[in-house]
Design goal:
This protein is α/β, with parallel strands linked by helices. It has eleven helices and eleven strands. The longest helix is centred in the first third of the chain and has 16 residues.
Length: about 300
């Protein structure tokens, strides 16, 4: 499905009204599913010439953040962008691809199948009309939209002059959170993230949990004043966990939810410290057991004497 979004109109992401000194966005061409306006987004960006390790990290981050309830934003470029989009789709999450050309352009050619999948299960955006080809000067403009849609930007790999670093600098001007994956001194594509960390422009992260710990208290999980707030779904899941690990497939047999919903709930419990993950499955932590006991205890009816 295609649509045209206008600033201030239905379906418009309000975060694009907060672009700092960057040029204002007034119109977007949209293809695919509507933007999930009530879901916080994280951009994962990086080089078109990644290392195998960079691709693995991008996929791990996108998968974890998707399961934790974030939408994944990137630019559909070959390399890190593609790995992030693919992992988000595989995790059952929502991904948003921002193009530097018109929707009708067959670009990037190596990612045409991925583009089709994002259009089916995610969202594709561009401010360019169909006949606009992918010219080099379009992409820095595109990057301000990637940054503007996002609560935070993660730079996986890239040189100092890369588009990923451009996106990070734009995000800083917009007061977004910046994260970077440290890399080997022998990897030329680690120069950009290492520079961001060294100059204190980005927080060092090695896991999606680091980002959740930073953003989730106000955006995703939420906590009650006593710190023991748990949803009905979380309590139902906690009731199935024990000291011995339980495989997700076994948990699904007792829950009325999809595997994607279960993955997000498990990621949430893990971030809160209420569950532990191992190769065999998930087990309840001592903190999770206390939460379960406290909440269940508070629900018991008083005994008449």
């Amino acid at each position: 499905m295609r649509a045209v979004l206008h600033a201030g109109g239905a379906g418009w992401p309000k975060t694009l009204d907060e672009l700092g000194p960057s040029q204002r966005v007034t119109r977007l061409h949209q293809q695919g599913l509507p933007l999930p306006l009530d879901v916080p987004a994280i951009a994962i960006v990086g080089t078109r010439r990644p290392t195998v390790a960079g691709l693995e990290v991008a996929a791990l981050l996108a998968r974890g953040l998707s399961q934790a309830g974030f939408a994944i934003v990137s630019g559909l470029a070959v390399g890190i962008d593609a790995a992030a989009h693919r992992a988000a789709l595989d995790a059952g999450g929502h991904t948003v691809a921002v193009l530097g050309c018109g929707l009708a352009q067959r670009y990037p050619r190596r990612n045409l199948r991925l583009k089709e999948e994002v259009a089916e299960r995610g969202t594709i955006l561009t401010e360019y009309d169909d006949d606009v080809t992918p010219m080099p000067f379009n992409f820095p403009q595109r990057n301000r939209i990637v940054a503007g849609l996002s609560t935070g930007v993660v730079v996986v790999e890239g040189s100092i002059k890369s588009g990923a670093l451009v996106t990070a600098r734009l995000a800083l001007e917009m007061n977004r959170s910046i994260y970077a994956i440290p890399g080997s001194l022998r990897n030329p594509m680690a120069v950009g993230p290492n520079h961001l960390i060294k100059t204190s422009q980005a927080a060092l992260v090695t896991s999606f949990k680091d980002i959740c710990d930073d953003l989730a208290p106000s955006l995703v999980w939420g906590t009650a004043e006593n710190g023991l707030s748990a949803s009905e779904e979380e309590l139902a899941l906690l009731s199935l966990l024990d000291d011995a690990p339980v495989a997700p497939d076994q948990l699904l047999m007792h829950l009325e939810m999809t595997s994607g919903q279960l993955a997000r709930l498990l990621a949430g419990l893990e971030v809160k410290g209420w569950a532990r993950r191992s190769p065999s499955g998930y087990s309840i932590s001592s903190a999770g057991a206390r939460v379960r006991g406290t909440v269940e205890g508070s629900r018991q009816e008083p005994v008449d004497r």
